[in-house]
């Protein structure tokens, strides 16, 4: 009977990476594999869910950015150690797979984890790492002619960059597999952007590759309807003006903001800019849920840092006034305000978690 990762194993591993104990975490993961847990399961059932918990701990202000970065580095070393210790015994000859994070996407661990699982499954994997500029990735694809390219996106604000890569790779006749949390639930926005196939997680992606390739030749995307107008572009260009208007409004409503240190002001302006960026991403794929889901997350982040959640409503009001001549943006902002009102109601669970 194959051994499995237990809840106790996950708790112990979280404690190790939380302390930045690289040697201890590596030894622990290798010991699990020696105990009979398949290396693939160590990555999928230990490392991956731990990374999700780390993100949640940061969002709830229980971990600092520094602790999160240190823990992620430890997990990267764990993946590297497992890959070095457990190399494919035989080449299954499935083909050449290039996997890379889109330009501006710095969360490379999910893509690296997938790359190693695919390698164990018999693929000749070329892992290009984080934030690969689109033109450089396309040049690499033209030069090496892989059987498939796996595009990783963990943050929806990089969907425009992902779309460029998908279209360019397909123009070269190379099928595209899209995966990562940035492509949305079940990677549905990857399908909307025209990827040939999408996968919600690394395990699903490897299984999909088995049944999909090399049975087909060339790119045959399962494209869904895709709204493409200029609203997201025009609004992105107005990001600085929108942030300035929101800062001015908040300063009048909350006089304490005027006394913020430069670092505090920078952090506030960053949050305001992110609201605009996620609004633009939602407009790009024509899905208000992208925007409202981000607002749910932002509400948690702000509340745990002592910022009244009502400030989000005020900012949405400012942006709605500023973007009165953008009908789709107005609809997305209205959806965001409805979601915020629901969260603030007793039934919505204001203050819970």
TrEMBL record:
It comes from the Bacteria. InterPro entries: Cbl-bd_cap, Cobalamin-bd, Cobalamin-bd_sf, Met_Synthase/Corrinoid, Meth_synthase_dom. Residues 94-223 form the B12-binding domain. Keywords: Cobalt, Metal-binding. The keyword Nuclease does not apply. SUPFAM superfamilies: Cobalamin (vitamin B12)-binding domain. This is B12-binding domain-containing protein. The lineage of its organism: Bacteria, Bacillati, Actinomycetota, Actinomycetes, Micromonosporales.
